[in-house]
Amino acid sequence: MALAGLCLAGAGAGVARAETDTSDLVSQDYFRVCADPANTPFSNQEETGFENRIAALFAEKLGRPVQYTWFPQATGFVRQTLASGRCDVVIGFAQGHELVLNTNHYYTSAYAIVVPSDSDLADVDHLGDPRLQDLVIGVTAGSPPATHMARQGLIGKARGYKLMVDRRAESPVELMMADLEAGEIDAAVLWGPLAGWYAGQSDMDLVVTPLLKEEGAPRLFYRITMGVRQGELTWKRELNSLIRRNQDEIDAILTDYGVPLVDEFGRAD
Q: Solute-binding protein family 3/N-terminal domain: which residues (predicted)?
C-alpha cells in the first residue's frame, strides 16, 4: 500500500509541484472519478460499491453529475487516469502515497481475520494466538499481515493468494472466501473492507475480527483518503470540506458495507 525509493530529483520535483496550485485542471462540469470497474465492494461499473455511493454523495453536494474513467487498479492505474487528466479524484487511497496528493482521511480500517463463528477460533484477535499454529491460513501474498504471519511461524502452511490482479479476469478474494467456506483453509486474513463485505455475503456465519494487537512493523491499520493530482491545493481543500461536513453520511455508507472501522490510531472505535 506504499511505494518505495523515490530518487532525490523526483522528490524535489514533487515539492515544487505542491507549491503551485493547479486546481484549474479540475472539471467544473462533472465530478470526474477515477475508478476500478471490477473492485467490489469498493467500486464497479454497476456503481454499487461504497466508493461509488460516496462519489454520488459528493457529486450531489457539488451539483455536478458523476463521470467515471474506468481502469483496473493495478500497475499504471494513476498514470492512466488521474495523472493523464482524464479524471480528477480517486475515492480511495492510503494516506501518504507518493503518487497522489492526499486529502484528509475519511475512514480508518485494519486487516482482519475471518473464521467460522462456530469454530474454536471465533475469539482469536491476534496472529500470535497459539491456536493458529499448524493451521492453514489464507493470506494475500505480499500483504502486510504476511510479514506478521512469517514472524509467528504461520507461513509454512499458509495458502497465498495473488495481490495485484485485474479483477475483471480473476478475484483472489472470492477464491479465498470460497476456500474458507469449503474448509480448505481454517481462517482468512484480509483487508478489513473486503473481509467485512464478503463475510456479510456468505451463506456461512462468519466472524470478522480486526487485527489490532500485532506488534512491530508493518502496521495493519491504514487511514484512507481521496487522491488528487499533486499541486491541486484548492481542490484538496474543497474535498476536505466535503468530507468534514458529510462524515456522518460517509460513516453510514461504510457501515452498510460491513467495513470494520477503527480510530485513526488503529484502536477499536
A: 30-261
